[in-house]
Amino acid sequence: MDSNQARHSTAHYFLEGLNEIGFDYLFCNFGTDHAPLIEAMASFKRGGRKMPTTILCPHENTAVHMAAGYAIATGRGQGVMVHVDAGTANSAMALHNLCRARVPVMLMAGKAPYTTRNELLGTRDTYVHFVQEPFDQASIVRPYTKWEYNLPSGVIAKEALRRAHTVMESDPKGPVYMTFPRETLTATWSEGEINSYPAERFGAVAARGVDSAALEPLVTRLLAAERPLLIASYAGRNHATVAVLDELARFAGIRVVEFNPLYVNLPHDSPCHGGFSPARALTDADVGLLVDVDVPWIPSDMPDNPATWWAHIDVDAEKRNFPIWTFPGNLRLAGDSHRILSDLLAALKARADEGFRTRASDRVARMAEEAAARREQTAKLAANRGQPGEINPHYLCAVLARALEPTDVVLNEAIRNGPAVFQQMPRTKPGTLIGLSGGGLGFSGGMSLGLKLAWPERTIVQVVGDGTFYFSNPQSSLAVGRQYKLPVLTVVVDNTGWSAVKEATLRVYPDGDARSEGEFGSTLAPDMDFSKVAEAAGAYGELVSDPDAVEAAVARCVAAVKGGHSAVLHARVTKL
């Protein structure tokens, strides 16, 4: 070690390491554990040095989902900083969603200082330092992370950051978690003691294609298929896959169903789009493909045909994070669905004869007729506008759809009114739909902000139920939108409570006491006015309950967003 070399804190080298792994942003909810990092950030700013831009978020749910939205839009995972065990606990639900969505985010949290009597710089100096030390802080988010680590020394700060980044960006991607005590961050090191780890030597592992021999059974089956079916959910995370899947479906005459789609997997106006429920197609399919999907159907009420031959193409074909996962797969191909589907299409084209082409073309023509019939039925659903106090959700969503451009983005977190969003707000461009991957309601508030940060030219629309609106920490999301000039349109589809809870009870006990008593534990506070929440944050807010007022209300909200202000449209719809 050269004694003449400059010495800096671990926090200083940590910021350098964040630069080296390429973070654009840090979405932060700081605490007392971050004092060394805040000091290092101030020093970087004073010296005009590059570092990730910090976005302050009043709630961790906003921070983590905002990082996820930016990662989804750009393909680059970002960093989140939260406060010890408390911030980690507030982040856990968002980590659950990111784990299921396979979105790369690095969650970083301090730990309570481990010295108590000024033995080291950064020692415990306030009450919470004694109460914020659990035995196993990482256990709070362990089920939802690919990797976890507590930084033992600043001398490996950059090495640990590179390792975290490599793991989170390797397929299948996902969140990682790192912790660091204050004393570790304050320790100083000479520049010569700290090594860097460039991406070209220590980078992520990408999913690949498969060899032609592995594809052969699927090619052979599809060439002979009469009723092929493909079910997808998150293949569209790679925007290039959408066009390949559309071309494959049209060429081979494959019906494509998006069950609980997380992204646009197939343009919703494609003749091969078979809607959002596979129930009817399951019984008829002779050859099936599962492509990047976690739950292709609900076995208890959508029985599949035991004679169907299934191929499973997935970046996560093993489903290691699912304790029970028993959907069929006569052939399982783990890898990049874009590459595999491209190779599958090429192989089919090479071997297709006129008979195959004619049969496939006939299937596409029949599916186009069915799609036209579905669109007609969808239009009929929207024609009923509802009544005062109970706007028809289908009508509301149809009006919203007419106000959007094809490149605008819809986040569907309407839950039991989610089918109305899917049906009435068709998306045709890659990246214009985001759905709920996990079970943690409240993702769309923060995620919409991250998308807007990455795509400032697009209108971002968050469609939520009233129950979900509570979960999304709206005050935090609206505050961030105001502070960083990220206007988002939020539409609250208010059916007065948790319809999912009521419906679940009726499915299990269709003739039970809950039904006879009308007691489902699902009705939320009446007469709330969520538009006032918007106004508190300087956003535009409007409550609409009359169908006759919907079009004008939507127009005013869209105009407010285009004018640079967030907007909340609180719509009272058909009650649960």
Task: Compile the SSE list and pairings.
Blueprint: E1 7-9, H1 10-20, E2 25-28, H2 35-46, E3 53-56, H3 60-74, E4 78-82, H4 84-101, E5 105-111, H5 128-131, E6 148-150, H6 157-169, E7 176-181, H7 182-186, E8 188-190, H8 199-202, H9 212-224, E9 228-232, H10 239-252, E10 255-258, H11 279-284, E11 287-291, E12 309-314, E13 331-334, H12 337-351, H13 354-383, E14 386-387, E15 390-391, H14 393-402, E16 409-413, H15 418-424, E17 433-435, H16 444-454, E18 460-465, H17 466-471, H18 474-483, E19 489-494, H19 499-508, H20 513-517, H21 531-536, E20 540-544, H22 550-562, E21 567-572
Parallel strand pairs: 2-3, 2-4, 4-5, 5-7, 6-7, 9-10, 9-11, 11-12, 12-13, 16-17, 16-18, 18-19, 19-21, 20-21
Antiparallel strand pairs: 1-8, 14-15
Architecture overview:
The chain is globular and about 80 Å long. α15 links the parallel β16 (409-413) and β17 (433-435). The protein is an alpha/beta fold and 576 residues long. 51% of the residues are buried. α1 (10-20) packs parallel to α6 and α14 packs across α15 (418-424). It is built from 22 helices and 21 strands.
